[in-house]
Design a protein that fits this description.
Length: about 500
């Protein structure tokens, strides 16, 4: 029992205002009193006025010591014990209940919270949500009901984690999983153990599968590529980053006689956003997945769950509250996370350095990061796809008007108006080949199937056109199946 009052408002002011989130009227002590006390302790605290009817009229109540003792006896049925005070004022008993520091509070009739001017009993689902929100149990620490050691453990995933974490070789897998809190005493994996150390999470934890989608243009209309990643968390993070890299354009920056590729998006910010989605998503939400969506002008990275309990919007980005502390610890061990609480600042700094990307963060039931291109970072070299052959040498600056003369070497500044004379260069290109050349110039890592989808032709036709472009010296393949195309020159054989 405490002597600290909850509210410093006079009883007459409360009575005139009526019942509300912090005030409850009762004519007498009855069996629902313990429910109201639980509700206030589980919410923001409040006062119960005994001797007042629903209209806010004082009807009086027994204020004897015996009745006060009865109230105290009733409150002993609340677990854990609540912080409250009892005072008597003009024939009223005022029971002040403080917001609890050990939520949730329960009584023989269940768990209750304050909803407006009423107290509401929580359903089973609401109780689970409440426990999770208050941090009384965490998804990443819970025992998985079916995943066991060694049946579901993938030794390759364990070895990869050990390698990334710098753990000495010769470890014992069973002992390692126990020390990492990834396995219980009865050889069941925890949910964190499932996420990090199984071959596929699809059948054990389907909602943890990650979906990546590439759209044509700026709207969710035409899907060019879609992948679901269902391996261990480390593999999934790396697969997602590869998907983004493969489907986001790189800009070709020409510096003097050399060229270099620059990613259109800040890689540091993208990496932080992806890892944040894995680390802080609400894994209790089994109806949603982490979703990465790539459009022509932006990338959206979404994960279920808003701000975790204990973190306000005001503190967001300045302090860290981990929804899944065990997952965060594992990612930190594997060196995917450097220091907790610094990711948002690094993302913003990386975005600011580009000068052409904005970052917006939406926090509701979902956490969504949107990176959007607002302007071109560099002046791209123009690819002149003239049917009579390419123009050799790098070219920068706007170009307008027909060009029909031989041009070689670097050209800087705007060019306008016709240029007469015969055109030099290799053999004629078809319209389809010029389209392909333009697309792979804009995105050198574009897969054949994406080219085929964008041009509405079959893959074999794309393969024939690419072969012809290679033969004519327009393009070169670097790095095999996982590599990229290089647009040569344009039309020259030099490559940097």
């Amino acid at each position: 029992m405490s002597t600290n009052p909850v509210l410093d408002i006079s009883p007459l002011d409360i009575l005139s205002a009526g019942e509300g989130f912090h005030a409850e009227f009762k004519t007498s002590v009855d069996k629902t009193l313990v429910e109201e006390v639980c509700a206030f302790a589980n919410s923001r605290g409040g006062k119960i006025y005994l001797g007042v009817n629903d209209l806010g009229e004082i009807v009086g109540v027994d204020t004897s010591s015996r009745n006060v003792s009865r109230i105290q006896d009733i409150l002993r049925h609340v677990e854990p014990q609540v912080d409250f005070t009892i005072s008597i004022n003009d024939g009223l008993i005022i029971l002040s209940v403080s917001e609890g520091s050990e939520k949730p509070y329960g009584c023989p009739r269940g768990f209750f919270v304050r909803m407006g001017a009423n107290s509401q009993k929580l359903t089973r689902h609401q109780i689970l949500e409440y426990f999770q929100r208050e941090g009384r149990f965490r998804f990443d620490e819970l025992r998985h009901p079916t995943a066991t050691f060694p049946e579901h453990v993938d030794e390759a995933s364990v070895a990869r984690f050990v390698s990334y974490s710098g753990i000495k070789a010769g470890h014992d897998t069973e002992g390692l999983l126990r020390n990492l809190d990834c396995m219980t005493a009865d050889f069941h994996l925890t949910n964190t153990g499932v996420l990090f150390f199984v071959t596929s999470i699809d059948f054990l934890m389907n909602h943890a599968v990650v979906t990546c989608v590439l759209y044509r243009g700026e709207d969710k209309v035409y899907i060019l590529d879609k992948k679901d990643f269902d391996r261990c968390m480390i593999d999934n993070i790396e697969d997602v980053l590869r998907f983004i890299e493969r489907h986001t354009a790189t800009e070709l920056v020409i510096e003097s006689a050399r060229r270099r590729e620059v990613s259109a998006y800040p890689t540091v910010a993208l990496r932080e956003a992806v890892i944040n989605a894995f680390c802080h998503r609400d894994y209790f939400d089994k109806h949603s997945r982490i979703l990465i969506e790539i459009f022509s002008n932006r990338i959206e990275i979404s994960n279920p769950g808003g701000l975790p309990s204990g973190l306000s919007r005001k503190d967001f980005g300045t302090r860290s509250v981990a929804r899944n502390p065990l997952i965060a610890s594992m990612l930190q061990r594997a060196r995917f996370i450097e220091r907790l609480g610094t990711g948002i600042r690094r993302m913003q700094q990386s975005v600011d350095e580009t000068g052409n990307i904005t970052m917006d963060i939406e926090i509701e039931n979902y956490f969504r990061v949107v990176f959007k291109i607002v302007s071109s970072r560099v002046s791209k070299p123009h690819v002149l796809l003239n049917p009579s052959g390419p123009i050799s040498g790098p070219i920068s600056g706007p170009i307008s008007g027909p060009i029909s003369g031989p041009i070689s070497g670097p050209i800087s500044g705007p060019i306008s108006g016709p240029v007469s004379g015969p055109i030099s260069g290799p053999q004629h290109l078809t319209a389809r080949q010029r389209e392909i050349l333009k697309l792979i110039h804009d995105d050198p890592r574009m897969p054949r199937r994406t080219l085929a989808a964008m041009l509405d032709v079959n893959s074999s036709a794309i393969a024939r056109h690419l072969g012809e472009l290679k033969r004519l010296g327009y393009i070169r393949r670097v790095g095999g199946n996982r590599g990229h195309w290089t647009v040569i020159g344009i039309g020259s054989d030099s490559e940097s």
